[in-house]
Design brief:
Strand order of the largest sheet: 3-2-1-4-5
Radius of gyration: 17 Å
Helix content: 40-55%
Shape: globular
Mean pLDDT: 93
CATH architecture: 3-Layer(aba) Sandwich
CATH class: Alpha Beta
CATH topology: Rossmann fold
Low-confidence stretches: none
Number of domains: 1
Distance between the termini: 46 Å
CATH superfamily: HUPs
Structural class: alpha/beta
Length: about 230
């Protein structure tokens, strides 16, 4: 029996790496797709390469430009928020939001999936412990799946490409526990919004990661590994 193929969007972050390992566990032949969109935190691209090399799976890295920027992750003149608590993170859309990023990523993934005959796209989006991005909500992914079905040859001919979000309703602590069960090399994942050698430990992504590991009762191996 031929193994089903799935495209998995891999940023190199904790959530996307966990989703990658989950997709493999679900017995899909994984086609990893990483998008280099000019992000300042380019350190995560190294993580994506290291993880896929370790797994010996196909890995496409596609580079695009968003010259209009519009996000602190693309424009160094926009300060990245620091030291915010959970209430501040969730109450508004932050400057780290990249306009239509998941729409762009899913469109690229749909094109790749259609060409390779993949039946699903996996993405590590989360709607619980996240930074308030509108393109991380369940209703958004439902509509995007419909758009892909209507706008592709595969969809029109009955070979629907589904969008799978296995982490969408999990807390960060639950994601970390799942990652541990799946054997994800957490020390290779990168969450920080800054592209420095070490995590800043103060941005929203670092805050949510630290909070998640604390609630899971697990030490974050990233910090010991990057400071060796």
């Amino acid at each position: 029996m031929t193994m089903k193929a799935a495209v998995c969007l891999l940023s190199g972050g904790l959530d996307s790496a966990t989703t990658l390992f989950y997709t493999i566990k679900e017995n899909f032949r994984v086609l990893a797709l990483t998008v280099d969109y000019g992000q300042i935190h380019r350190r995560e691209l190294e993580s994506a390469k290291k993880i896929t090399n370790y797994l010996k799976i196909e890995h496409e890295i596609i580079s695009i430009e968003l010259p209009w920027k519009g996000s602190a992750l693309l424009d160094e003149t926009i300060p990245i928020p620091q030291n915010r608590d959970t209430t501040e993170i969730s109450k508004e859309i932050p400057v780290t939001y990249v306009p239509a990023r998941n729409t762009i990523f899913l469109s690229l993934a749909a094109s790749y999936a259609e060409v390779r005959g993949a039946s699903a796209i996996f993405i590590g989006a989360n709607a619980i412990d996240y930074s308030g991005y509108p393109d991380c909500r369940p209703e958004y992914f439902k509509q995007m799946e419909t758009a892909i079905c209507l706008g592709t040859k595969a969809g029109v001919e009955g070979a629907r490409i589904s969008i799978e979000t296995p982490l969408i309703h999990l807390t960060k602590a639950e994601i970390i526990k799942l990652a541990t069960q799946l054997g994800v090399p957490l020390e290779w994942t990168w969450s920080c919004y800054r592209g420095d050698r070490f995590p800043c430990e103060n941005c929203d992504a670092c805050f949510l990661r630290k909070k998640g590991f604390a609630e899971a009762g697990i030490d974050d191996p990233l910090f010991s590994s990057v400071k060796e």
